[in-house]
Structure formats: C-alpha cells, structure tokens
Specification:
The structure holds 2 protein chains of 2 kinds.
Chain A: E1 2-6, H1 16-20, E2 25-27, E3 33-35, E4 39-40, H2 44-51, E5 57-61
Antiparallel strand pairs in A: 1-4, 1-5, 2-3
Chain B: H1 6-34, H2 43-70, H3 91-110, H4 114-117, H5 119-125, H6 128-143, H7 150-172
The chains are: A alpha+beta, B mainly alpha.
C-alpha cells in the first residue's frame, strides 16, 4: 500500500496527478490538488508523484497489515 | 581612431545566446506536462531546467542591452532598452525585442506571485510564452545583422521547428501511465 501526502503549499494546480490517477487525485475548486483516498495500492500513484511539476506529492510505501 | 568591435561582437553574441536559451526554456516548459521521456525525467526537474534557462536567458538579454548601449555602431540610447521605438536602428524590429524582453521578465516575476495571482490565471498568463518566442524570433531575424548567414537561418529554422514539434507533441500525445518497474519483494 502507498500512503500519499500532498504538500499544498507547493501545489500549483497543474493537474498532472488528476490526469494520470483520477481515482486518487482531483483538482478542487481552488485549483489545487486534493486526495480522494489517503492510501492506495495502485502503482499509478508513483507515476503521478513523478509527474508533479512542483514535487508536491510524497508517496510512502507501507507494509500491508 | 579605430572602432573597437568588442561591444558590437558581444551584443550580437549575447542576443543569439539569449535566443537559444529562451528557446530551450520554452522546450523545457513544454516537456513539463507532455513528459516525452516518461519516468526517466521527473517533471520537477523539467521545471527547474525551465526556470533556470529562463533566468539565464533574461541575464543574457541584460548583457545584450548593456552591450548595445556601450557599442558605438548603432548609437542605441539607454532609454531605448525600455521604451519601444526609441532605437535609431530598425526601430520597429528592435521594439519587438524590447516588448518580448519585458513580457519575459513579467513571466519570470509572475512565478513567485502565482498564489496571489491565482493558479489558473497564472497558467493562462503563461500562454504569453508563445507570443514572446514569436516576437523574439521576428526580432532576431529582422534586427539581427547575422540573419542572412546560413548558420543563423538554420538556427531560427531549427528553433521554430523544435518549438512547433514540441507544441504538437504536447497537444496531440497525452502522457500515459507507464507500468511500475518490477520489484523483487
């Protein structure tokens, strides 16, 4: 499982994360990325973190309980 | 008394170098979202390259302006660096360069102010990059005294072709999810 954290002070609303992993990320009314889920097993989250132009997404891999 | 060509050579070299840096900055900016290199290049690294190239380009433009005012070939007044149309040499072509430079400086300044401006508005402002590139190209071709040289024509053609290609890529090819690398654990 991957735990996801968005640093919204860095996010500039490019929306790359929501394009690559729409089940995990969305762009809110303020134009910034927000999370639909706190953790996911979908490796698309790694792609989304790599695609963030502001490096605002941190993904931590957690051992499954 | 012989004419010292130092500042004249510096003005031409810095102008062409600024054009190359601005072109590279535009290309790096296009790479940020189109991500043609996939996971091999992090988008954040593309942003760093984009911003660094833009700042270097602006610095080179400052050198271009200073060298032109210090040179005795064109008699460029200092005010002509900021006010379009004051250049005694090809005023319209030089004005394109002056306005392009001022717009480029505005874009650079807008980055740290993007939260105040609003993210969506800030990204909309960034569309001016295309106008800046077009004006810089027209300025270089029309005002540059090396423009008739085959290498200069090749430079402008290559820059316009590269930006057109990267723009088409950005518009037509959406970044796709690439499979995560195999893990042994």
């Amino acid at each position: 499982m991957y735990k996801i954290v968005i640093d919204r002070s860095l996010c500039s609303g490019f929306g790359s994360c929501a394009e690559l992993a729409p089940e995990i990320f969305e762009v809110d009314a303020g134009g910034l990325a927000s999370l639909r889920v706190g953790t996911t097993g979908d490796p698309a989250v790694l792609e989304a973190a790599s695609a963030c132009p502001m490096a605002a997404i941190t993904v931590v891999e957690e051992e499954a309980a | 008394m012989t004419h010292d060509p130092t500042f004249w050579l510096l003005a031409r070299a810095s102008g062409l170098t600024a054009y190359v840096l601005i072109t590279a900055s535009v290309l790096a900016g296009l790479v940020v979202k189109s991500r043609p290199f996939g996971r091999a290049v992090k988008a954040a690294d593309s942003v760093d390259a984009h911003r660094t190239l833009a700042l270097l380009g602006l610095g080179m433009l400052a050198l271009h302006g200073v060298a032109l005012t210090l040179d005795s070939t064109l008699h460029m007044p200092t005010a002509g660096l900021a006010v379009p149309g004051l250049s005694p040499y090809r005023p319209a072509s030089v004005a394109l360069g002056v306005v392009a430079c001022e717009l480029a400086a505005l874009l650079v300044v807008s980055f740290p102010l993007r939260r105040r401006i609003g993210m969506r508005a800030w990204r909309r402002i960034h569309w001016a990059s295309y106008l800046i590139f077009a004006m810089a190209t027209a300025h270089g071709i029309a005002a540059g005294t090396d423009s008739t040289q085959p290498w200069a024509r090749g430079l402008y053609l290559g820059a316009v072709g590269a930006v057109a290609f990267a723009t088409a890529w950005r518009a037509l090819i959406r970044p796709t999810h690439t499979p995560a690398p195999e893990r042994s654990t």
